[in-house]
Amino acid sequence: MSDSPSVIFTAYATGILALIGLCQIFILISQRTQLRLDWAETYRKRWGEIRIDWSKVIYFGHSSGDYYQIATAEVISEIDRMKTERKNTTREIWALEPTIRVFTELNDICLRIMQGHLRIGDTYPILGTEFLRQSAAMRNLLDYEYSSRQGNWGDKEHVDVQRSIRTWLVCHDGIRRRCLILIDMLWAEAVRLEDLPPDDIRSAANAKIHTGKERKKRLKEEVIRLNGYFSIIRALSLSYFLQHSEYKVNKYSRGIDAVRLKELEDKWVKRYLEE
């Protein structure tokens, strides 16, 4: 009986310590969440500051004279004037300035995701579907193999600008790789949320039948290269996230359901045609 008070005291002390431990865990989680939100807000502001630069990069990524542009008529006129008036070396340097700012920023965002400072879901609202709808133009600059398959044609000045941008990206291959990885991750998030036209989802999923494994491997290797082998769980988690943009392997796996996609397409066409 004499031991009862000490046992009760020990039990209370243990309970208090456990409660303190839980409070510390909640505080750490809250601090981590707030830090992520702060990073997201920082990148939101920085992306807003370079949107005109991004519109120029998209112009460079398209073939000369393409109808679909996001740059204003004033910006396009400025670009066309610079292309024709400046000498080759000066023109290429002028074109590289917005390119470096945009792709360096995208690289920085990708690094934050791979380091665990940001989640894909934090970044997606910053860039969104407007960014992804122009992903072909960005891939045209980032991926020479993609560019060669597109069979780009255009005036010599425009082609020379594209070539100078690709050369810079080849010389900064880490930035080039991580920008492609960021596009892949954001595309997977957009497919998961059903934010893209069904035909775009299907076209990309068909391509990923052949390229999906390589893209996931590239992402895993990049995360491990950046953070070391102790980041293998994060590497596997992020690479598996890309499965959202691929067809399901079976009915229980993550990915695109072909039947669901067909239903979405039928509804999308009716809304588009206002039937």
Automatic annotation (TrEMBL):
The keyword Transmembrane applies. The chain crosses the membrane at residues 6-29. Keywords: Membrane, Transmembrane, Transmembrane helix. The keyword Membrane applies. This is DUF4760 domain-containing protein. It comes from Enterobacter cloacae. The lineage of its organism: Bacteria, Pseudomonadati, Pseudomonadota, Gammaproteobacteria, Enterobacterales.
